[in-house]
Design goal:
heterodimer; A: 196 residues; alpha+beta; PF0523-like; 9 helices; 45% helix; globular; B: 255 residues; Phosphorylase Kinase, domain 1; Transferase(Phosphotransferase), domain 1; 2 domains; five-stranded antiparallel beta sheet; three-stranded antiparallel beta sheet; 10 strands; Kinase-like_dom_sf (chain B); EC 2.7.11.1 (chain B); hydrolase activity (chain B)
Amino acid sequence: MRQYEINIYSDSNIKDITVFKFNNVTNTQEIMDILLKGELEWSIVNARIVYDDRHLLTAATQAIHQLCSKGKLSTNNIHTELIYRMSPTTNIRDSIKTFGLNIEDNVFYIVLFGATEERIDRVRTLVKGDELKEEESDEALKKQYYPNKYFDSQIARKLYRLPAAAAAAVTNNTSNDNLQLLYKDILNSMAIKGHL
Amino acid sequence: MTDIVVEPTAVPPTVAAAKTVVDLTSLGAMLLSQGAEAKTYRFALNGLDCIVKERFSKKYRHQQLDTKIQAKRHLMEIRNINKCRKHQIPVPALYFVDNISNRIYMEMVDGITVKSFIQQQQQSTNSNNSNEILIKLCLEIGRLIAKMHDNGVIHGDLTTSNILLKNDDIGGNSKIGELLVFIDFGLSYVSVLVEDKAVDLYVLERAFLSTHPDSEQMFDQVIKGYADYSASKTKATLSKLDQVRLRGRKKLAFG
């Protein structure tokens, strides 16, 4: 569990987000059922496309921006708004389907806005799986905002509609450079959403 | 006599936003430069090293007009940067677009402007025009501008200070073209007209010649690079450029 502050808007009453990452989750079906009833105030994000915590933070900032600029969200609540902001498309249904929780997932991120002790406990009691805690003490990882080892560049390319040709054009780059480039492209396609 | 009813005027967006917007410097942003139109800051947005371009309102302009011009330039900048990126023209990646305060958060490009690079090179070598690295650079600039024009993007403010050179080892000059980054699309627009493209090049020529002494040959290389991109596509633009040179940037509206 990690907590981050979002401070670029002064009149927003949401100032922080809490990020959990779980793997080996055994009760996805159960969580899905409760989620669909609309009882969980969580964003559950598909871990395959999350590059690192900054990626989630950017989406959260955009969700808050939407709330502050328009006075209302594009989706029903701030939690679905975060998932919607992760996606490059303006189709809400599609976004939540692909970037949210899928029934066969056993690895995912959970993001809470303005979390309280009580809500954090609820996450830990409800989700039956391993919360990834061991990384948190690592200072080097903290500096890099915890890169996600479940990130799948193939899936990300597909979902963000970034053709591999763009990366192939820069042939003499190392794979790490390519990954950085992909990450920038991902953030770029999130940023321009709704401006075209 | 009927009373004169004063319609309540809508609150201008800039006023409405004022309470939401947090001054970036109070969050630890560093002011890099201020131009006529915008301020640029260096800021860590959620740990992402970025440049923030913040357009400020101009008090001398009528507020409605100001809001309109700003919103338009803001949007065009975003669209055209994205369009260039899509066509593999090197531009900074956008990280976050803030419509409330007209801020654009984009990728931090570590480097120097082509303007200061050329000045450095000219100082270090006396015979500036025969400098191999500058010739290569200018050819590549020309090629990229041609590519931009081919995709319908007119930059609108091409100068050597609006082109950056990334700070990776410049000594290895074989791939200097990969280090170029175009910035400041605030005056850019979409057009496929030969006239617009020619004027865009003309603006660069004027900027080149006025900022860098003895740079005629360098600009010739830009033109050469432009023509090399695709002879059939750029021929019309280049012949138009000769006409533009004779009459200046503005088209004669009469006669």
